Amino acid sequence: MSKIQMKTPLVEMDGDEMTRIIWQMIKDILLLPYIDLKTEYYDLGLVHRNETDDKVTFDSAEATKKYGVAVKCATITPNAARMPEYNLKQMWKSPNGTIRAILDGTVFRTPILVKGITPYIPTWTKPITIARHAYGDVYKNVEMTAPKGSKAELVLTDADGNEVRELIHDFKDGGIIQGLHNRDESIASFARACFNFALDQKQDVWFATKDTISKKYDHRFKDIFQEIFDNEYKEKFDNAGIEYFYTLIDDAVARVIRSNGGYIWACKNYDGDVMSDMVATAYGSLAMMTSVLVSPDGIYEYEAAHGTVQRHYYKHLKGEKTSTNSVATIFAWSGALKKRGELDGLSELVDFAEKLEKATIQTIEEGVMTGDLAALSTLENKTKVDTEEFLNEVNVRLAAMMN
Ligand code: NAP
Ligand code: MG
């Protein structure tokens, strides 16, 4: 069998710990036997980030801008404990944060559904994709405690030095205050990323804020979304047979619970933080959640939503077998290969990526799965396998489909 050829390289961002081990296994077992894999490799493992003073992260993001599609392994975001463990020069920032800032991207998280794992909300038969705005609001706040007898005001100084003041509160007793902001440009990028992704996925977009209470702040989000939709996307959505739907956040949560899924839920920063945890939990497992960063100009970076699975890695280092779920990482690769194939007009590559996903799901639905899923699955006959066995089982099914 001749291998599938690629035209443009994928930007490959390697990572840390157990996911780094899985990364190599996926390539060896599921990709290299079938594809003449072309990647531009960046080692975002913490050791190499430290050696390059984190330059490698910036380089990988620039390469993503150049080529348009990247696939990323989970990486360690260092904390105090990692300083001595990796002998770090400094506590390097989260690579995801750095890449997101350079690409000005929005993160879309989508659960992978399989038979045997029923969401806590059983009517959710299709995935709900959460898009979280990743700039501003409470995450870039300024806050103070207000002592008894103090007066808090909002002061805005314009370019000519003119001040506008508004009283926040006269504190007869002590209290607290907080200042928030967002930028029109960032909200517009978020809106475009959501609308582009919706066209890509052929799914509706739901967006909700608290604009009835926040008549200027949240209302601005609503207006920017509507304006961009009307001017740039309405026709494209009509042609694709999909909808943009705005409602109040209270109404949205009620509708989400009653829905069957199958849409993109665009959330403000805080809503997205909280709701993505709720939605992920309700669908069953973080190890079955994919994540893709999409820039407003259509650049894609695919990854798993989970971390480096540190606890399993320490077992692996002791020579013990682990049963680590590789599904989200497999889907990061399949997502990136599919997108690369679409952009380069390589139907064989798209077809391969789809078969890889099918083979993965089929493996689990036939009862072969890692420990985390075995604990959740309601299938009667199930076998718990280790990390490598699972990938070999997927390959048995993939090989059959490829013949
Ligand atoms: P984690 O890697 O997501 O793992 C937390 C726990 O969830 C694991 O111990 C495991 O539970 C379970 N789990 C997660 N993924 C799994 C999988 N694929 N298969 C089986 N079980 C899985 O989170 P963490 O341990 O809090 O973080 C480890 C490192 O990851 C940190 O350094 C953090 O900075 C980094 N991180 C990176 C990203 C990213 O690059 N996108 C995201 C989040 C965290 P059991 O131990 O009970 O089996
Ligand atoms: Mg959260």
The coarse silhouette is: globular
Content of β-strand:
15-25%
Small ligands present: NADP nicotinamide-adenine-dinucleotide phosphate, magnesium ion
Largest sheet: 10 strands, mixed
CATH topology of the largest domain: Isopropylmalate Dehydrogenase
CATH-level-4 superfamily name of the largest domain: Isopropylmalate Dehydrogenase
Class of the largest domain, according to the CATH hierarchy?
Alpha Beta
Order of helices and strands: EHEHHEHHEEEEEEHEHEHEHEEHHHEHEH
Query: How many structural domains are formed by the residues?
Result: 3
Q: Helix- and strand-based class?
A: alpha/beta
Structural features, described:
The protein is α/β, with parallel strands linked by helices and 403 residues long. It has 3 domains: 1-107 and 290-403, Isopropylmalate Dehydrogenase (3-Layer(aba) Sandwich); 118-140 and 181-283, Isopropylmalate Dehydrogenase; 142-179, no CATH class. The chain is built from 14 helices and 16 strands. Strand 15, helix 13 and strand 16 (383-384) form a beta-alpha-beta unit. Helix 6 (184-201) packs parallel to helix 7 (217-240), helix 11 runs antiparallel to helix 12 (347-365) and helix 12 (347-365) crosses helix 14 (387-402). The radius of gyration is 23 Å and the shape is globular. It starts with 9 loop residues before the first strand and ends with a helix. Magnesium ion binds next to helix 9.
